[in-house]
Each structure stands twice: as C-alpha cells, then as structure tokens.
Amino acid sequence: HNLTKRFGSFTALAGYDLTVPRGTIFGFLGPNGAGKTTTLRIMTGLAKATAGRVIIEGVEVGRGKRPPIGYLPDTPAFYGWMNAREFLRYIAKLHDLENPPIDATLERVGLADAAKKRVGGYSRGMKQRLGLAQALLPQPSVLLLDEPVSALDPAGRKAILDILSELHGHMTVFFSTHILNDAERICDEVGIIDQGRLVLQANRDELLARFARPIFEIDAMPDDIPALRALAERVKSLAWIERVSQEGARLRLSVRDVDTARRELLPMLAGIGMLRFEMLGATLEDVFLTLTNSQTEDAA
C-alpha cells in the first residue's frame, strides 16, 4: 500500500497500491529501471520503503515476523564447492527446517540426477534451477522471483517456466520480467510498472481484450527492405495506424480501424515482393508497449 522509495532526490517508486490474488501466477512487468527489483527487495525485507507498507499473508514486512516467502534474486549466488544436496541442507539450517524435503525439491526442479555434482560445474540454467529449489525448500505460501529467466537460453527458459506452471494453485507466484512472451504464457494476472508507477493491473485475458488492437504483419523479400522501410515511414502519420515497428524484412502495424487497414494496406504494398501478409491478434507485448509509450508521452 502506497509503496514509495526514494534515493536522495530520485524517486524509484512513486507511491502505488498493488493487491495480488492468492494462488495466482502474477507477472510484474516493466522495462529495465522501472522499479521491479526495488519493489521485490522491499517485499523481501532486503530494502526499506521510504513510505507505505507491504503485507504478505497477513504479515507486515519489516515488523519482526518473517512472512512465508521464498525468494530467488536476479543473480543468485552459491558456494561452488558444495553439491546441490549440501547447498539445500545449508539453506534448511538457515530456515531451521526439520526434515526438509531436499530430495523431493531437487526432483521437482529436475536436478535429482545432478544432486552430487559440485555447483561450480553447473550450467547457468542448472544454477537457476538450484536457486528455485532453495526458494521452494521452506514450502512458502508466496514465491518471489526477480527476472528468473531473463539470462537463460530458450531451452532453459522453457524449463523454468514449466516448473512455475506446475506451481499454479499450490502457492502464489510473483515474478518480475521484461520478457513479455513468458508472462503471457503462464500468468493469470499482470501488473505493469513504468518509471516507478503502477500503470495498470488486470487479469491477463481481460487486459488483452481491453487494450489489444489487431496487428498486421508483413514479411517482404530481403531485396525489398528499403521499400518496406519507406512504407513504414509513410504510414506512421495515418490516423488508422497506432504503432509501427520494423525488424529487417518484417513490418508490424498495430491499427485502430481494421476495415480501413484491410482496404488501404494492400494497394500500398504494390511493388513490394511479399512473402506473407497476415492479420494477428495482439499480444501482451503490444499492450505493454501501448501503455508504457502512453505513460512516456504523458510525462513528456
């Protein structure tokens, strides 16, 4: 409630309210520097808010009693000379756990076969799984994850996201990310933060239905990239175009008026060698860009 954090004259969090439904997978979305990590550090008690308070499962953070959380920071650290089982025993002692479910937890994150291998020899993906294991070991009610997949390759990201999906309904999962496809894949609910302000919080499907606009995607022949670039510049000023982006031979247009787009786009493409012309449903990334761009324009 009213979460505020200032560093000198710089306001990192501008006093916002956020309520996370119990048992959901909640995606906390925002560009780099938006305030995601600062929020998570306050939620875990690793940083103190300038104003406001955080209550997790009835426990106010920073008031003595530890809330029932597990936490995976964005860059987890390990003792490389330990193996995975030894590391989790160490974590269990820190939590004063009796009969900790070490083997079951390693099995849950896919590290059972590597339990006796030294952590120093683990890949980045394996270390991230071990970081997730230590967060799950005390069997928390709420799991807090700071950019848990941002540094992983596609296979590693998929493995972690699959594990998080399996936790749905068993605990509340709150994870920050700037990888919108990952949030769209597994989240029930999302909150979007930008420049320390909560832009919006909503159910994922409701958010897509409310803000999403149709997307036209055009793939051109490589030789026609200059013509595609000229088209992109040409359509930016049209009233029925909301946003234009081009990556190489692909042009992506978010439109306000589908009928006008259907009628006027194809004639504009005359003379451009097309490989694909398709109308798509908008993604969470499209919604995110629309909302954060709007906030940037308002601030300007």
Number of helices: 10
How many β-strand stretches? 14
Q: Tell me what portion of residues adopts beta-strand conformation.
A: 25-35%
Gyration radius from CA atoms, angstroms = 23 Å
Distance between termini? Answer: 27 Å
Whole-number tally of structural domains = 2
The second-level CATH architecture of the largest domain is: 3-Layer(aba) Sandwich
CATH class of the largest domain: Alpha Beta
Secondary structure class reads alpha/beta
Question: What average pLDDT do the residues reach?
Answer: 90
Helix content: 25-40%
Which residues form runs of ≥5 with pLDDT under 50? 296-300
What is the fold-level CATH name, i.e. the topology of the largest domain?
A: Rossmann fold
Envelope shape: globular
Strand line-up of the largest beta sheet: 6-7-8-3-9-10
Largest sheet: 6 strands, mixed
Order of helices and strands: EEEHEEEHHHEHEHEEHEHEEHEH
CATH superfamily of the largest domain: P-loop containing nucleotide triphosphate hydrolases
Task: Describe this structure as you would to a colleague.
With 300 residues, the protein is of the alpha/beta class. The chain folds into 2 domains: 3-202, 3-Layer(aba) Sandwich (Rossmann fold); 213-281, Alpha-Beta Plaits, CATH 3.30.70. The chain is built from 10 helices and 14 strands. The strands form 4 sheets. The chain has a 6-stranded mixed beta sheet, with helices on both faces. A 4-stranded antiparallel beta sheet has the order 12-13-11-14, with helices on one face. The chain has a two-stranded antiparallel sheet with strand order 1-2. The relative contact order is 0.14. The model is unreliable at 296-300 (pLDDT under 50).
